[in-house]
Design brief:
The protein is of the alpha/beta class. It is built from 11 helices and 11 strands. β1, α2 and β2 form a beta-alpha-beta unit.
């Protein structure tokens, strides 16, 4: 239904610990992936309904998990968040599963970059893509920051400590595209203190004070700030994606070859419905643009 750039690895500063505690409870579900892939989890629920396995971009995991809980509570199917991570990394995982004809992999893919859905369609591993919502890249700093907030990538690079997401995350690839447009790609890759696995790892490093600035999604700022009574992050500047870019367009697709096509389609329709998953996206600050498939 629904689609790497340079392989440069950014250096980590000695004082930073990239293994950041994930404040969002939903991200603890990452551990379920291994068991699912090894076939250690039951393939059917207690009501003998097929389990729909969802691979989801980290930045949108909270509202999607809420949608899955809502879906399961209605007794129309059983869905589980099997893997969470960078959109590009998840697509690569799905491609490997299809190439090896592995069982117990993804049935539904939720990406933070609609172009990855199209890439999956070109690889014959994704069905039609359905756009759900939009989020926007921002330069974010801690709310308690006591230095001039950077408003451009070059100013961010000049800060004492900044981080980026890995290029396998949609925000990481977009960050590198924006830096290249400013002629700052080499400086970005040479000076970043953290190369985070996904946007939530990056945001948590920023919130805990391990970083001074980072490019994340505006919705990620909102989700981090919902975790405490006082805001932990603030937006220093809105960034404009390149014209025609689909980075930040949350989309989903049923994975071709899934063993539960009807159930996966049912879940996709629910997530893309304003009375279903789109309501959870809207409540989390995403700009809903979806349609019912």
């Amino acid at each position: 239904m629904i689609g790497n750039r340079r392989g440069a690895h950014l250096r980590r500063s000695g004082g930073l610990n990239p293994v950041v505690t994930l404040g969002l409870g939903s991200l603890t579900l990452l551990g379920l992936a291994t068991a699912s892939m090894l076939g250690l989890r039951a393939g059917h629920s207690q009501t003998d309904q097929p389990v729909i396995r969802v691979y989801c971009a980290a930045g949108v995991a909270v509202p999607v998990e809420q949608a899955l809980t809502d879906f399961n509570s209605r007794g129309v199917g059983q869905a589980e968040m099997t893997r969470i991570g960078g959109s590009g990394r998840l697509l690569g995982q799905i491609a490997m599963e299809r190439a090896l004809d592995m069982r117990g992999g993804a049935d539904l893919y939720v990406s933070a970059d609609a172009s990855l859905i199209r890439r999956g369609q070109q690889q014959q591993i994704m069905a039609r893509g359905v756009p759900l919502a939009r989020q926007h890249p921002v330069i974010a700093v801690r709310s308690a920051a006591r230095f001039p907030a950077p408003t451009t990538i070059s100013e961010m690079i000049a800060t004492r400590r900044f981080g980026v997401a890995n290029e396998n995350a949609a925000i990481g690839e977009l960050t590198r595209t924006l830096a290249e447009e400013e002629g700052q790609l080499a400086a970005l890759e040479a000076s970043a203190a953290l190369d985070a696995e996904n946007v939530m790892h990056l945001a948590q490093a920023l919130a805990t004070g391990a970083l001074d600035a980072a490019i994340i999604w505006n919705t990620t700022v909102a989700q981090i700030n919902q975790q405490s009574e006082t805001p932990r992050l603030q937006v220093a500047a809105l960034l404009e994606p390149p014209k025609g870019s689909e980075a930040g367009v949350i989309s989903l697709a049923v994975v071709r070859g899934t063993g539960v096509p009807e159930a996966a389609e049912r879940l996709a329709r629910f997530i893309a419905d304003r009375e279903g998953g789109l309501g959870h996206l809207d409540a989390q600050g995403f700009q809903v643009i979806g349609e019912t498939p």
